[in-house]
Amino acid sequence: MNSLKHEQAVIELDSSDPAVRVKALRFIKNHIIGNKTKKDLYIRLHVIPKLVKFFKSKDTVDSQVQIQAAIVLGSFAYGGEENVTEIVKHEAVKPLLECISLQNDPRLIEAAARALKAIYKCPTADKNDIFVDYHLRDLITLLNPDALNPKTDRERIASIHTAELAATIIARCCDTNEQQIQIATAGAFPALVNLLTCGFSKAQEAALDALAYLCRENPEFGKAIVETKSDTSDSPVKIMLNLIQDKSPTMRLIAAKCRAKAIGEYSDDVTLIVLPTLVKLLDEKGPVREEAPHVLAYLIRDNEELQKAACDSDAVPKLADFVTHVVDQESSYYDPVGDGDKLKENALMALAAISSLTDDGRKLVVEAKIIPHIVAAMSHRSYGIRAAACQCTRSLSRSINILRTSLVDAGIATPLFKLLSDESTDVQTTACATLCNLVLDFSPMKRMIMELGGIEKLVELVHSPDNTLRLNAIWALKNLVYQAESEIKEAVMKVLTYQTMENLISDQEIDIQEQALNLLRNLACTRQHDIEEVFKGLSEDSLMTVIETKLCWWTNEEIIKQVLYVINNIATGNERHKSAIMNRTNILKSILSYMGHTNPEIRVVAMWVVINLSWMEDKSASSQVRVQKLREMGFEEKVKNMTNDDNLDVRERVKTALNQFSQV
Amino acid sequence: MFAANDLESEFYYTSPDLISSESDLEENNNAQEEDLETGNIDTVDDLSNGRHYGDYNTINMDLDGEYTSDEEQRPRPTPTTSHTFQRLVDPFATRHHHRSSSQRSHGFSPLGTRFSSLRRQNAITSSFLTQHVKNNNELAKQAISDNGSKDLRQFHLPESSFLRAGMSFTGTQNLMNSQPQQRDEEWEVKVTIHYVDYKTGTVIGLMEALNVPNSSNTVVTYWEGEMIDFVNHFLWTDKWNSSPEIDLQHWKKFEAFRHMDVRSITRGTPTREWFQEACQKYIFMRWKEHYFVNVTAQESGLTIAGFYYICIRRSDGAIEGYYFDPVSTPYQKLTLKPLLEGNGISFCDYSLN
Amino acid sequence: MVEYKELFVGTSSQKKVVTRDEWVKKLSDVKIDKNDLNKLIMNYFVIEGYKDAAETFSQECGLSPSIDVDSIQDRMNIRNAIQNGNVEEAIERVNDLNPEILDTNPKLYFHLQQQRLIEYIREGKIAEALEFAQDELAPRGEENPEFLEELERTMALLAFDDTNVSPVGDLLHPSQRQRTASELNAAILTSQSQEKDPKLPNMLKMLVWAQDELEEKILFPKLKNLITAELVESNNTTVNSESNFLST
Q: Where does the protein end up (chain A) (predicted)?
């Protein structure tokens, strides 16, 4: 390639004549725009530091030079991450931010904003510079097209374009919660809401996008946006709803996404307008169709009513279609591979969301006959699809009926189990969550999973550094010993070890403590033999100490509940087991006080402990002694005072307990 | 379950050909489902010999009294055999639903004329019955202001320690034959509850029959139940070949109702306080077995075409139940108590992730 | 119970016939807002890039164009450049107008480069064409493999001396320039938040379709010629109508 003229252009950048410089800049500009190869060439010719110099020199520089230099920098930024890294390395960002200051030539502001937008598109670019000095304030001012006092039509249009650029920069710079707060404090909400009414679709889309990012994982801000006052008489929700019904599908999608994030107080429009719009967008083509399921999944994920509404629409068959058929896909910027992977993944997530809370939803998904495809997706090359397949399975497995029939039929256990060893932690975590449901006593797949080495694998995951994965692993083990035969309980504890369980009971994560205690509860359930095993495994002393510590020094209700159940189950054992509890005065005192706890569930368990400790089945002397001791400690009195407890179940237990007391 | 050997097997078994004897547990489950699905013949019309519970089919009737076709609810494969058999009804398919319980209309179409062939047990005519049921169910929608009766929409079914996942019960099921020379048949039963949701009024569990006459194994079935909570489910079954009269006959058998006469029950529900008092002492349910878990229907010699009316006592967890199936001997009684394997009652638990 | 004859309506195989007079009367009863008409026409001028016409029309009917008229000029200049084979000029102009357009439309950029190559070949500058292909087009193919097929097609032009028999001869037709120009015009309009399709052609399509649909149900005087707007009656007598809404 003849690079002489290009080298020449770079040299001319150093000319003292601004006209020559401008000419060289334009030459370079017209060669690099759209052309990655040329961008790379010029970067190798070290052009970027020369461009940056144009902004740093204090002598009056021709504004045309700066404008063209800014345009050139922006174009380089479109060349990919390496280019942006180069630009940032040569400290171009700060000077560009200076250029958007309001006293500058509007054309320079526009050019610099454009360059910044391209730079910030790159996820690795450092975004902190915006939050220094007045830059953020300038950006927000630029959101108003009138800020630069445009006089002609052309200027007006340029102003709106600058507003669009400012909105996009804001959208790209609120990655963290702190950044969101700073931007909001600087007054972004009203400015963006007003931009929504400007009538120019690109600017409106940029504003919607910015608002959606500002309230991402931030429901408080979502509420604030919805309550912002606009300059027109319309509320932000009304404005968004107008855009949700726009003729452009892209606008409809972005507006729906924005509304989905900025919900605030739930209102009917979400079910009546936003949801149906998203479902209809599934008929579009390209990036719109690809992203619509993702927004849909987000919208309905925790809301039963919305999921029911989605079931009533024809969303499921359409989504199922994306999963089962290789979709005719235009290549899009979202999916350069163009295999329809992203679409499939998003569709699976949407189906997982629809079936997450209601049996209606699960039934619909099963009837769409996609389970074989879900199983196949578990070995897909894309980890996003594998994880989405797990999510789908997880949702479906919440129906016991489906778990026992459709999921068994599809042979889901083996592929799912394999994913516990997947290279992606996300996949492992979701697979483990699903497995929690498949190892239950009434699941036909329990045995197979154990035969595949389920216990060993789960115990391995219990030691994982990822907290969510650990939680799911101990959860699965807890479910595994629910109603289990003694052999299974022993098999589990042989691998897990009582020591590990003891450690988990004191884990830093409360959720994990809860699961571990529940595991202990299940171990000590049903048979004396099982209780004895626990006593052997932990030693009576350790066991009682753990119980006492948790009972007397913790206030978390879930923890208290589980500990009380552990005690309860032990109290159904033999003399020795019951005595172990009776000998610990602190434990008894705690139980006495928990009988008056505000949470009825806790009161009920406490009552059951009393009932089991005063169990009179054999009327033996030892049971009489126990009852006496309880009476002396004030249990009978306390129970009597609970005769009119609010809770029916508590009252029933009171009757039983009093009856048992009365026999001694 | 019901021992089918007293009556013609064709009417009770699901198609046996599909199952090989070596199939394992999972395959059995699948096969059962297939069996059930191949039989989509309108049942009651076929069971015409001497069956007097009407020539109507409540199975496909939704609460507005409108018939919906079977096909609309759930696509089924075409039948491969010409067996006539009791179609086991999946409550998920016939839930008159796709509407939330709050939107469901409460009503029952007046079918007075169709009931005319029913036996009359007392002075209450069928039309009076259905009218009254309809009336009372509609009343449930409005606030009642007479005699301090509570508005039933606010009625909330309190929970019971005994009705929760992980609880097991043991006892017997008695078949009381009308002929004096045949001895009572009785077998042991163990029931384990595996899922309880007070919000939707749903229960799921497994039932195990031990020392069943014709089978060497125990026979395990999977059942799903509904709690009579007056929000999701009411005293009136509206499906499974039942009728308000049949419902009444069975509810009356429970000790909770025994001393009450039919008229006051009908008038009393759903608005009277004393009925709510009954719910303070008991929880009423219906349990319906859906398929056999460990054997085939034929191997077991049993049928699960009917369902149970169930009552559990809050104080001690005792369960009383009556099996109903129009073609079985009526009022087989199920008597269960909580299973105690230790000196006390222990509770294990799981949670769905 | 329904009267027998009422049942009969709609099952007749005879189509209802609308006479010319009835039809003309119905048409004249339809009210069309003149302002809407003007907007339609302005919309056509603006999008298609007829700047002078837009300006004059704007003054005469008092309707301001939806965008600034200068930008129409910009687009016109760009379109003309391509129509004249000056692709390089067009690229420079569009980069002045909005430097992001070509950076964010690889397909468009490729087509512009492709057009440049075609122009070289058209002018017989084969050496330059080859050099250009190597410098500019080959890298496009490397950057985006989905363009390779079109690239090969274009290179095939060089294989045939007589372009009339070349299977890719269509690339040299004026229509190819037209295609490229329209693609660029559309991209510019989109970047300005403008629609890229004028409404008028769609309306005419609607009209033709609606007539076809209606014809299945009733017989009525149709507009057969959209330019003369003559109403042709179903029994083929031509009727000149004063009330048709497309003035000649």
A: Cytoplasm; Nucleus
B204/A401 Cβ within 8 A: yes
Put simply, whether A23 touches C (Cβ < 8 Å) is: no
**Angstrom distances, CA of residue C112 to CA of A3, A28, A614, B268, C194:** 22, 18, 91, 84, 22
The pair of structure tokens assigned to A620 is: 């033996």
Contact residues, chain A, for B222 at CB < 8 Å: 404
Three-class SS of A129-152: HHHCCCHHHHHHHHCCHHHHCCCC
Nearest alpha-carbon partner for A450 in A490, A410, A406, A423: A490
Is pLDDT of A664 > 70?
yes
The string of pLDDT tens digits covering residues A456-505 is 999 999 999 999 999 999 999 999 999 999 999 999 999 999 999 999 99
Closest to A154 (Cβ–Cβ): which among C68, C134, C135?
C68
Q: How far is A597 from chain B (nearest CA, A)?
A: 17
- Interface A:C, Cβ pairs < 8 A: 63
CB A407 within 8 A of CB A370: no
The answer to whether A201 contacts C193, with C-beta atoms less than 8 Å apart, is yes
**Span A648-659, pLDDT tens digits:** 999 999 999 999
Which residues of A are less than 8 Å from C69 in CB distance?
153
How high is the pLDDT of residue A335? 46
Cα three-residue angle C200-C206-C212, rounded to 5 degrees: 145
What's the confidence (pLDDT) of residue B92?
26
ipTM of the complex: 0.85
Are the C-beta atoms of residues B234 and B270 closer than 8 Å to each other? Answer: yes
Task: Compare C32 and B164 and report the one with higher pLDDT.
Answer: B164
Alpha-carbon separation of residue B21 from A165, A410, B24 (angstroms): 72, 21, 8
SS3 for A341-391 is HHHHHHHHHHHHHHCCCCHHHHHHHHHCCCHHHHHHHCCCCCHHHHHHHHH
- Which residues of B fall within a CB distance of 8 Å from A525? 166, 346-348
Nearest-CA distance from A297 to chain B in Å? 18
Q: Tell me, yes or no, if A626 comes closer than 8 A to chain C by beta carbon.
A: no
Q: Which residue of A has its CA nearest to C146?
A: A331
Q: Determine the Cα angle at A328 with ends A322 and A332, to 5°.
A: 95
> Which of B105-119, B177-191, B295-309, C141-155 shows the lowest per-residue confidence on average (mean pLDDT)?
B105-119
- A interface mutation test: which of C92, C100, C101, C130 has the most A CBs within 10 A? C100
Nearest to C109 among A26, A34, A152 (CB): A34
Token couple for C179: 């295609």
- List, for residues C58-113, the tens digit of each pLDDT value: 888 888 776 677 778 888 999 999 999 999 999 999 999 999 999 999 999 999 99
Ordered by where they begin, the domains of chain B are 2-15+157-338 (2.40.128), 18-150 (no CATH)
Contacts of C120-126 spanning 24+ positions with Cβ under 8 A: C121/C157, C121/C158, C121/C172, C122/C85, C122/C172, C123/C85, C126/C158
pLDDT tens for C169-194 read 888 888 899 999 999 999 998 888 77
Q: Measure in Å the smallest separation between the Cα of C184 and chain A Cα atoms.
A: 14
Span A330-345, pLDDT tens digits: 444 444 455 688 999 9
Instruction: Give domain limits for chain A.
Output: 529-664
CB contact under 8 A, B349 and A522: yes
CATH of domain A529-664: 1.25.10.10
What CA–CA distance (Å, rounded) separates A434 from C106? 43
- Mean pLDDT lowest among A373-382, A611-620, B41-50, C218-227: B41-50
Altogether, the residues listed in chain C come to a count of 248
Tell me: pLDDT of B75 over 90.
no
Cβ distance C95 to A37 less than 8 Å, yes or no, reads no
